[in-house]
Amino acid sequence: MKYNNLKMKLPLLVAMLFIVIFSACQDDDDLAVADRLFRPTISETSYGGTWIKAEWDQYENVEYYELKISDDSLKTFVQEVTTDTSFYIFENLEYDTDYYLQIKSVGETLESRPYVNKVITTSDYPTQLNSISSSDVIDNQVRVSWESVVYDSLMLFKNDTLITTVALTDSENEKKERIIKNLVEESSYVVKAYSEGNYLGKKSFTTMPAQTFEGDVIDLRSYSEEESYSLLSQEYFDQLAIDHPNGVTLVLAGGMAYELTGPTLSSNVSIVTGYSLNGKAVIAVSGNFDVDGAANIQKLYFEGISFTDHPDKPKTTDSNFGGTYIFNVSNSGAAVDSLTFEDCEIRYKRGVIRIKTAATISAITMNNCLIDSIGGYGVIKQDNSSAVIEDIRITNSTITHAQKFVEATKAPTLKSFTIKNLTACFVPGTSNYYLFDLKGQLLENGFSITKSLFGMGWNTDMINGYRSSAASVTIKDNYRTSDLVWTFVTDEAGAVTVVAPMDINQLSGDIYSVFADPDNNDFSVSDDRLKDKVGDSRWW
């Protein structure tokens, strides 16, 4: 009997279960339809530095809209509001920040699912910080500059982490510049400016790779000027030769002045300015560098150095600018394979390189150098019949206000002589002097003067070009200003003979037409025949 009752109830149970399932599905479908018709979609957004405006369509049966805004992908919310309008403006936000906006509708009996808008980034503050260019950054420092505002601090960030806060002084605000140090090479940073706690914009930059040198290196950039003065003594250079028999590179700090008495070198030495935001290191020698008579040096190398007069031998002392040299080789037997000046500035010297004894500098190279105010011993002087110079090469350089330039006449040792992309003005100092006096030099490996620009002499109406005993001379693609006149003589019959000219193209203008401001050492050119072609490229 019980079995029959169960048999009769089973169809009824199945029917009831079907009704329940059908009803549940119908409820879900109704809810989905309601959400699609009820859930708002943001149709338009606009923004400024500290505000975001959102707009959406109005819906029936909505009592209000609930909005939330987040700056961390909806993990937390910086503002939560409700409104019964179809727009809202979030204010007091942060500059240049990513925000996420969430909105949903709320009715009397119905609530939509949230709608999340795509990320919106507020505008950055219209900063007075200057853009940071490659010339403002090295491996471990950055120069931050700004316009006519006053900041009280700079904050430095790396990967959104505050690295340091730099308080600014009155003098730095007056100068509108601050150098931040102790950075990490090849790293990206953001610097932000503040005044009284208010954010005033930012700039980003990436540091350079660290500077590398061959062989042994001694970095002197952490020493003060006083420490460096006492350090760079003769004893120090003697010890370098012992400790670094294969040579060493000394790295100097840009902008720092190094005062030396004049060491005698006996081993390979390179002296360079390290990466710097303060220009070149300055070397002031009260005497001159020399070379030990027993030394056989492969390389002496200077890069990024500014050579100038010494306080004990100021440029105003005499007509030879204090009477000092860079090299005045006085020890017989001294031998140097290669002496190079790269990207150097040389001023206020009686002479730059002089060999006054039976010594050898096989190759002298100057590239990208600016040479100014040189006395009677000129830039290169072979001043002994046993002095040996085999190769001279001067390229992409400028020389001005020099009594003499190159004088190698005492011994026929010179094998090659190359001048290329030179700008020369106010040199030499009298009508008897030559630009290039190579009397007796055979120059079997070549004599070449190309793509160079020559202005008038220094306090003289006429100058001589060159002389040598070279069998083959290449003088090509050179120009001279109209006021450069070659020295000439007139015989009793009135015949005019030019003594030592160079066959180069003459321009129609004088130095004041060709150069921007020659009296102040601005030799910039605008003539299309010269730009990107002739003379020192720094003036193009």
Automatic annotation (TrEMBL):
Alphabetic keyword roster: Signal
Signal peptide: 1-26
Domain Fibronectin type-III stretches: 32-125
Record SUPFAM superfamilies: Fibronectin type III, Pectin lyase-like
Domain of life from the UniProt record: Bacteria
UniProt-recorded name of the protein: Fibronectin type-III domain-containing protein
Organism encoding this protein: Labilibaculum manganireducens
